[in-house]
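To close the section, here is one more complete example, presented without commentary so you can practise reading it yourself. The ligand is S-adenosyl-L-homocysteine.
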Amino acid sequence: MIGSNILSFAKSILSDALESGGIAVDATVGNGYDTVFLSRSVGSCGHVFGFDIQEEAIAQTESRLEEECTAANWTLFKAGHENMLEYIPEEFHGRVGVIMFNLGFLPGSDKSVITKPETTIAAVRSSLSLLSVGGVLCIAIYAGHPGGDDEDSEVRQFCRSLDYHSYRVVQSEMINKPGHPIRVVFVFKL
Ligand code: SAH
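Output:
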């Protein structure tokens, strides 16, 4: 059910911008679930570029992709997403349909390795230049863990400041969820 989980809700919105043969980026591959979703969505003629700074996340994502995706349409980089413009070949700049960020720490792993506001915002800036017109950036933001609240407010403040004539920014939040909020911010490039 689309509304049972905020990420499945996000994916239903992204489906609209994901076409067969398209280009997508997973900026935080983590356990690889979103990478698999993107790989399946763009199909064998498309391509997915994935980033993570942890070897464990890259290895986990690689084996999940090998098991669950038929197309070898992906390239993973063990590198910070703030450097994505250097890793993604120039021919794809301005042609990316969907970019996903899933912030915070890798569940079931070292909780001290977290995404940080400065590098996240640098990566979001780069993402905006990679997107095609009609492309969508999707950022799942977690508050509650140490450092999470600051990242939540800084990333949303950055997105709120984007020029209305060039981008539309939509925020969704499951407002009856107990505990800390999970927010998803979508940036639509006009
Ligand atoms: N909080 C999410 C999962 C987040 S996974 C959930 O609960 O489902 C976030 C991933 O971002 C981690 O695997 C971490 O290693 C990665 N990461 C942290 N900093 C990064 C950076 N600068 N560039 C790319 N990936 C990064």
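Once you have examined the tokens, check your reading against these statements. The chain has a mean pLDDT of 96. The beta strands are 23-26, 47-52, 74-78, 96-102, 131-142, 167-173, 182-189.
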